[in-house]
Each structure stands twice: as C-alpha cells, then as structure tokens.
Specification:
about 160 residues, Deoxyuridine 5'-Triphosphate Nucleotidohydrolase, Chain A, about 5% helix
C-alpha cells in the first residue's frame, strides 16, 4: 500500500471551493447538510434508494453556522472528485469532529473510476453541534491498488449536489 501525498491527490479534486492540502490527503468542505428524520424508513433494493419521509435540508444560520441538533445527517462534500485507474480512495471525518462529540460513520471506499460528490453520514448525540460553513469536514486519502479491467460504473457514478 502506498498512500499518496496531498499534492498528488489535489490533482483529482475539482476546485473551487478551496481544499486544504495535508501531507497524506486533502480536506474538503461540505456543500449540503441533510437531516435524516428519526421516524424515516430507508429502502435499498437494486436501483431503488429512498428515504421516506424525505431528508430535510439544513441551511447555515445568518452567522454561517450549521446548527445540528441531536440526530443523524447526510453531509455532501463540496468538491467533485475523480478516482483514477490504479487508485482507491478513502473518505474520513476530521478527527476534530470526533473529539467534539460527533459520531461519524465508518470510512467509505471509493473505487477506481468513480466521479462525483461523496457523502458521509454523521450522528450528533449531544444537544447541539455548531459547525461553521467554512470548516473542512472531510479528509480524502488515495492509495495505489492493483489496476482492474473494470472501473466503477455503479448507481452513484456522476452524482451531483441535490
């Protein structure tokens, strides 16, 4: 396994908005935050992917803060990424969020050939988590992998902000 440098990864991340280049990855901001209602039912069957009632979009307050009350949220990265052949990507939460009370879903793996805007699921177990819209939410890493004859062409290929 060879983890790529942040500078190398940055070449596969569309800007703007700005990213933060780290030694072994990059940080990205969020473009959308959606509350998954506590009484929701989600269905996954083949190409059917839905949540009823629908997720509710959360907007920043006048000071620029997302005010996340206890609950579960889907968060979309602000930058489109492309995972080249011969690479695999991993998407992590920033460790500062963990230290301040946010629970993040495990990392997601991005297959070679994926193009789109990744999402993370986060859970807020505390009364309120205030995150400014200009904070970096995601850490993206890439590493070498055996090149496959097949590239990602699944359901989420080319996904865009809602």
């Amino acid at each position: 396994m060879v983890v790529w440098s942040g500078r190398r990864i940055a070449a596969f991340v569309k800007q703007p908005p700005e990213i933060k280049i780290n030694p072994n990855g990059i940080d990205m901001k969020a473009s959308e935050v959606w509350l998954i209602l506590p009484d929701a039912v989600s269905v996954l069957k083949g190409s059917l992917r839905e949540t009823v009632p629908a997720k509710r979009r959360i907007e920043p307050d006048p000071e620029g803060f997302y005010n996340l009350v206890q609950g579960t949220y889907e968060v979309r990265a602000a930058n489109q990424i492309t995972i080249p052949p011969g690479a695999v990507a991993r998407f992590y939460p920033r460790s500062s969020f963990n230290r301040l009370g946010m629970i993040n879903s495990n990392t997601a793996v991005g297959d070679s050939g994926y193009v789109g805007f990744v999402t993370k699921t986060v859970h807020i177990p505390i009364r309120l988590f205030k995150i400014h819209k200009d904070e970096f939410w995601f850490q993206l890493t890439m590493e070498d992998c055996e090149q496959s004859d097949v590239l990602y062409s699944g359901h989420w290929q080319g996904e865009k902000p809602k």
